[in-house]
From TrEMBL:
<dbReference type="InterPro" id="IPR006183">
    <property type="entry name" value="Pgluconate_DH"/>
</dbReference>
<dbReference type="InterPro" id="IPR031322">
    <property type="entry name" value="Shikimate/glucono_kinase"/>
</dbReference>
<dbReference type="InterPro" id="IPR006113">
    <property type="entry name" value="6PGDH_Gnd/GntZ"/>
</dbReference>
<dbReference type="InterPro" id="IPR027417">
    <property type="entry name" value="P-loop_NTPase"/>
</dbReference>
<dbReference type="Pfam" id="PF01202">
    <property type="entry name" value="SKI"/>
</dbReference>
<dbReference type="GO" id="GO:0050661">
    <property type="term" value="F:NADP binding"/>
</dbReference>
<dbReference type="GO" id="GO:0005524">
    <property type="term" value="F:ATP binding"/>
</dbReference>
<comment type="pathway">
    <text>Carbohydrate acid metabolism.</text>
</comment>
<keyword id="KW-0067">ATP-binding</keyword>
<dbReference type="InterPro" id="IPR006001">
    <property type="entry name" value="Therm_gnt_kin"/>
</dbReference>
<comment type="pathway">
    <text>Carbohydrate degradation; pentose phosphate pathway; D-ribulose 5-phosphate from D-glucose 6-phosphate (oxidative stage): step 3/3.</text>
</comment>
<dbReference type="GO" id="GO:0004616">
    <property type="term" value="F:phosphogluconate dehydrogenase (decarboxylating) activity"/>
</dbReference>
<keyword id="KW-0808">Transferase</keyword>
<keyword id="KW-0547">Nucleotide-binding</keyword>
<dbReference type="InterPro" id="IPR013328">
    <property type="entry name" value="6PGD_dom2"/>
</dbReference>
<comment type="similarity">
    <text>Belongs to the gluconokinase GntK/GntV family.</text>
</comment>
<comment type="similarity">
    <text>Belongs to the 6-phosphogluconate dehydrogenase family.</text>
</comment>
Length: 634
């Protein structure tokens, strides 16, 4: 059986609601006030607040009775139980058998109720003392009593019958809603929360629950305390809110409601350094924090994304099973989810994923643009060519580009009506900043980020086009260049991946993350935006070595046969007047990477000339530094 304790300040309706609940449950009802000794009753009649010493014996008697009622048929008890230590003393039976129901309302609402009560020894003037004493519980269910008794009882019964949620999700944007439905489709008990902003975000959680009521049974909240109370311990909360200040604001609101061992998982695109700080701060409070990269967009979130959680291994043991359940599956049926590493590792890996994604998107865009205007090919013809390429590439981004090129609106192609000004959310730029800090060249990804930046300068570009009047007079034939274009695309894509993975390799050492590049590749084989045939190959390549991708023997054989096509394509494009920043960056990176001798000796000479920065010599051991007085005063 169970004992139900209806708690709250005086005037919240504990006795009235308790009796109604007892009747509905066919249980005996008891009022804790009836167990007070005469001296306590006398004090309250005279308006004197009770002290802890006054309550000590009273609580002991109640605890004994709770044990007795639980052994019998159960009961409903109305009791203020304002402090956590009082509630602990009353917890004399297993927690699963003790159901807390917290009745609450704003001070003015309760005061009005008290003033309307007659023949009760509690005086309205004591309400302030009760509100000051009240420590709101983090367990049980919360019921706002500023409504009818019928509605209060109906809500209590609904919440009592609702199972405690295994996962709580905060933030019902596109990704949040899709992930919630994904969890529910896997028979995981879920509670959802979304903030309430009058006139902007009203009843988002409740509406979401209602919209999906025919298929799923779950609870939606716009009260954070009620949301937290609906979760099983240790609580597992997934944040799907905007990166930055919003994450910190939600964590700050959650912290007073959580207990040691609870877990917060940030599933947004947060900066990995922010995740460092949050993980450390929450750890000091006994709360585990997981910075979790999630890739796949709206469809992936709903059907199965690629998931990259970082944080303590212990926290992952708790949250990992849920994340694995909703993740995409690789070719062997294993979830595209793995514990990436400690602290900010998950968000760093997601950041690099997005950087590689930037490069791949720009690469496809450059080739489309060149073919569209240099060869005067229609979007349909380019889509057909991309489709033939994708039989080998098996690239999700190439796949969606085919659909995009074939999409028509009325009699024309939609692509021709879309403004050529690309936007970004910041993760690509973060990759570039991280690479600069770690001393890693990031040519293709940086070129892709900057290409988006210059695309945004639409007004300047239009004016400059008129001022310079550069014409693209050369024409080409798609049939004549398509084979070399494919080799150029494939080679640039390999180089772009190699650049991204090199950033992961260096960061792994710098932050002692021990990143498993093969396992990261496996997680990226399905569900994520950069999934491709190449990614499948990288699983095996990095299983044998974490070395730079361009040092792999199979990759060397591949690029040796196609690098010339890449250089030739870049030359034709630039000569014809078409910008190809990622194709160019891939070419320059490769030529620099494979040059036993490059131009840096001149750089070192210049630095030593104007700043006495010193240099190393080819005829002396590495690590020996020299300075020269360069100017000949004679």
């Amino acid at each position: 059986m169970a004992v139900y304790i209806v708690m709250g300040v005086s005037g919240s309706g504990k006795t009235t609601i308790g009796k109604l609940l007892a009747k509905d449950l066919n249980l005996s009802f008891y009022d804790a006030d009836d167990f007070h000794p005469p001296e306590n009753v006398e004090k309250m009649k005279n308006g004197i607040p009770l002290q802890d010493e006054d309550r000590k014996g009273w609580l002991a008697v109640l605890a004994e009775n709770i044990q007795k009622w639980n052994k019998q048929d159960g009961a409903v008890l109305a009791c203020s139980a304002l402090k956590e230590k009082y509630r602990k003393q009353l917890t004399s039976i297993p927690e699963k058998d003790l159901k807390w129901i917290f009745l609450w309302a704003e001070f003015d609402v309760i005061l009005k109720r008290l003033k309307n009560r007659k023949s009760h020894y509690f005086k309205p003037e004591m309400l302030t003392s009760q509100f000051e004493t009240l420590e709101e519980p983090n367990c049980g269910i919360r019921i706002n009593v500023n409504t009818s008794e019928e509605n209060i009882l109906k809500e209590i019964m609904a919440k009592l019958n609702a199972p405690e949620a295994e996962v709580g999700l905060i933030g019902l944007g596109v990704m949040g809603k899709s992930l919630a439905l994904n969890l529910l489709s896997k028979n995981i008990e879920v509670s959802v929360f979304n903030r309430h902003i009058t006139g902007k975000e009203e009843d988002v959680a409740k509406d979401f629950v209602q919209q999906n009521a025919e298929k799923y049974t779950f609870q939606g909240f716009d009260d954070l305390k009620e949301f937290v109370s609906s979760l099983k311990r240790p609580r597992k909360i997934l944040l799907m809110v905007n990166a930055g200040a919003a994450v910190d604001a939600v964590i700050e609101s959650l912290l007073p409601l959580l207990e040691k061992g609870d877990i917060i998982t940030d599933g947004g695109n947060s900066h990995y350094k922010d995740t460092f700080k949050r993980e450390l701060a929450l750890r000091e409070n006994g709360i585990d924090f997981i910075g979790c990269g999630i890739s796949g967009g709206e469809e992936g979130a709903l059907k199965g994304p690629s998931i990259m959680p970082g944080g303590s291994a212990e926290a992952y043991k708790q949250m990992g099973p849920f994340l694995k359940t909703i993740a995409a599956k690789d070719k062997n049926g294993n979830p595209c989810c793995t514990h990436i590493g400690e602290d900010g590792a998950g968000h760093f890996v997601k950041m690099v994923h997005n950087g590689i994604e930037y490069g791949e998107m720009q690469l496809i865009a450059e080739i489309y643009h060149f073919l569209r205007f240099y060869t005067k090919s229609s979007p349909e013809a380019i889509a057909d060519l991309f489709e033939s390429w994708n039989k080998e590439m098996k690239s999700y981004l190439l796949e969606i580009s085919i659909d995009i090129l074939r999409k028509k609106e009325n009699s024309g192609f939609l692509i021709d009506k879309i403004l050529d000004a690309a936007k970004q959310k910041g993760t690509g730029g973060w990759s570039t900043n991280a690479a600069l800090e770690l001393g890693v060249p990031l040519d293709t990804i940086t070129a892709a980020v900057l290409a988006r930046n210059i695309s945004g300068m639409k007004n300047f570009r239009v004016e400059a086009s008129n001022l310079y009047n550069i014409t693209n007079n050369q024409d080409g034939n798609i049939e004549e260049i398509k084979d070399e274009m494919f080799l150029a695309y494939k080679t640039a894509s390999i180089i772009n991946h190699a650049i991204g993975y090199d950033l992961l390799r260096v960061a792994s050492v710098e932050y002692n993350w021990k990143l498993n590049l093969s396992e990261i590749s496996r997680v990226w084989t399905n569900g994520c935006i950069i999934r491709s045939g190449l990614m499948e190959e990288l699983v095996d390549i990095f299983e044998n070595s974490n070395n730079h991708l361009l040092m792999n023997s199979d990759i060397i054989s591949e690029i040796k046969g196609s690098q010339a096509a890449l250089s030739k394509t870049v030359g034709i494009s630039l000569q014809a007047g078409y910008a190809v920043p990622v194709l160019s960056a891939a070419t320059n990176y490769f030529l620099n990477f494979t040059s036993a001798q490059n131009a840096a000796n001149m750089i070192q000479s210049q630095r030593d000339y104007f700043g006495a920065h010193t240099y190393e010599r080819t005829d002396k051991p590495r690590g020996d530094f020299f300075h020269t007085q360069w100017k000949n005063n004679n």
